[in-house]
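[Q] Does anyone have a clean structure-token version of this?
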Amino acid sequence: MIYFSLGSTYFDLKNYKQAISHYETELMFQKDRPREKCKTWLHLAAAKRMDGAGSTEVLQCYQNALQLAKETNDPRLQRKVLKELDRSHRNASSSSEQDRKDGTTTDSSQEELETEHRELPEHSDPELWKTSKWRKSGTRV
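[A] Here you go.
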């Protein structure tokens, strides 16, 4: 989990190359943990998009995340991955459409990706967070 945390920190600092490096290192240590590995792939996809990776490379991250989500037999996690994949496709479509119109990229796409990254679950399932005793006390585990 240390490399995941470092990756998230570098992502927040907009140092996407370092974030990618740490997420990739984290994946090497998550051999028998499909849920955590799936979440790391989601974060890696966001970091790669922010760093300007091609859509094929980002799509591969989402496909890996989806495969792992299926292994967990957790429909909520599968739904999360599919939503992120759909959002990625829509962002890519709207960005390329905007680029064609005026030849520039907008900062709104970057802001959406950063917000999306912060919304991704780090250490706990967001559904559990909503109903947990920790939520009432304001403490997050």
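[Q] Thanks! Anything notable?
[A] Helices lie at 2-12, 16-29, 34-50, 55-72, 75-102, 107-119, 126-131, 133-137.
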